[in-house]
Amino acid sequence: MGLNVHPLVVAADDWVREVHPHLPHMRRTLDWLLVLDPEAGIALQVAALTHDIERAFPADDDAPPAHDDPASREYNGWHQERSARMAAEWLSAQGAPAELTDEVRSLIGAHEYGGWSDADTLQAADSLSFLEVQIDGFAERVAAGRLSRDAAERKLRFMHDRVRVPRARALAGPMLEEGLARLAAAPSPPGSSPRPGSSPRPGSPSLPSPPQSGAS
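Predicted structure:
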């Protein structure tokens, strides 16, 4: 990472790189955060890198509600609180100040729905990263029969529709259109009927790319 990156941000990146199945999404969330807010503080940067950390640790005795509908309020509430708790525990183990730990926990605990300026910026960065790098994974889940096509489409639309930050909203629109086209082009699971009109939309607009955070 860059020379002036806070040690806790470096440590968070190392942790996520070691354990997380969706590393590109986590890192791109930080990239987009710094596009939307170049002066983002340490808590916001750590929250961006760790906002989905619970997905690195599948639940055994804490099964997610409504797991077949990743846009549901029940699932999102469970997910953001579980991630917030895990991130706070990790920060405490790193010796992070209690005030910073509490701020990160608050931000991650609100990252699906936002509610104040920093939480809205984190939410927007998460949405842009999701629409940029997570679509193929959802298309694969649809093709394998692990997620319904309707549920996948609801997730994409949710990630777009929740964005409040005006600059991010403008960027998210073309991303949503491209993502829906890629999802529509995904094959149906074996034995199911193809969805009517499931063909890609041509001419998806090109999108600006945020600068990389420098993580390797």
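Summary: DSSP finds nine helices and no strands in the chain.
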